[in-house]
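call fold target=YgjV family protein
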Amino acid sequence: MSDWFSPAQLFGYVAFVLGVSCFLQTDDRRFKWFMTGECLAYVAHFALLGNPTAVASSLISMTRSLLSLRTRATWVAVAVVAANIGFGLAIATKPSDWLPLTASCLGTIALFTLDGVPMRLLMLCGTGLWVANNVIVGSIGGTALELVIAAINLTTIARMWRARPAA
C-alpha cells in the first residue's frame, strides 16, 4: 500500500494545487508561472516515484512554460514540439503513448501562439488527451486531477468570455 504522506506524494499534492491554481488564472503570465511551478513539482514527484519518462516529459513542459514567458518565437515552439516528437519516437511503444505527447505539443502551440480564451481552449484539448491517457493506464488520481483541471479551465474560460469587452 502506498504511503499517502511520503515525500513523493507530497510533491504530487503540491503539483495538484499549482495545477488548479494555474487554470484559475485569467492573466496569461501568471498562468504560465503557475504551470512552471506545477511542472517543477511533478519533476520531483515523478523522480521520487522512479518514473524517468514522466520526469523528462515534465522537464520539457517546464522548460516550455519558462520559454513562453520570454519569447513567442515560432522557432522556439517548433524546437519544443520537435523535442516532444523525438522523445516520443524514442520511448513510445503503442499508439496510446502518443496521447500525452500530443497533449504536450498542443500545450506548446497554445502557450507560444495564443492568448486568453483561445489559449485555454487548446489547453483544454490537451487536458482531454491526458484524461484519455490516464483512463487507459488506470491512473485514478491522474484522471481526477485532469477532470478537476478541465472543470476549472471551463469555468475560467466562461469568466473570461463574460468579462470580454463588447465588440
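return ok
Residues 17 and 49 are 19 Å apart (CA to CA). DSSP finds seven helices and no strands in the chain.
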